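USER:
Class, as today's exercise, take the chain set out below, and explain how the chain folds.
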Amino acid sequence: MKGSQKEIHKNYFIKNGSVLSVNKFSADDITKTTSIYEVIRIIQGVPLFLEEHLDRLNQSFRLLNYNFYIDPKDLEKEIYRLVEVNQCYAYNIKVIVNNLETPSPNIYLFFIASNYPHEEQYKKGVSAILYTAERENPNAKVVLKDFRSRVDEKIKSANAFEAILVNQHQQITEGSRSNIFLVKDSILYTAPAEKVLKGVTRNRIIDLSKKIGLAVVEAPITVDFLKECDGIFMTGTSPKVLPIALVDHLPYGSATNSTIVKIRSGYDDLIDDYIKKRS
């Protein structure tokens, strides 16, 4: 599948330091072996929270026992190179590293389909479903093609925006492509770090919440807590802080919840500050 627009967008990608036309891209090359990845959002030509993404990429190598390290400065140069060669200053970039069992791993950088919530979805919230599944090594960001296909099918059939994963103990862990926070009496609840992908946005939200005086509880969350909480939201590279208005058949006033509104506003300010310092 050469130059598949499902896998890659824009005109050029980078493989092992070489700039190539997208018609030379083969999707099979990034799925036939274990592929560790990061998705980085570009805003006004600036890779958002780049340092944290690259730290997590190297951490994923260690978690999966690969003796490999990418110099963040070198990868940063390649990211800016990809931005400039495509003249694309507001989109998502995917970094994939695979072939890690060999002396010469492959490093790919390319733009991917980038879908961001509409303003109306921030104002009203989105719907989510519960989905029974858990990832084997949640702290490592690894391409899981079969899992992604199955959960996407469920999301589409329910006309939902996201699936909230539930483990064998009937505990909420994370979203299929996001982290999940629940709010009760202005206290934030989220699953323990060891049970989820430690998202860059998740970490920023926890730090921000503490700075503005909000308590954050990282502990197992039972599905029954969904009936008690005041609101729920998801976090991630593309959605940022997105209120959830419906989980299966349970409605929430998340979009107008004062705690969630405060967090959304504070996170947008963090982004603005980061971009201004690097523009």
In short: Residues 132 and 168 are 7 Å apart (CA to CA). The radius of gyration is 19 Å. The mean pLDDT is 94.
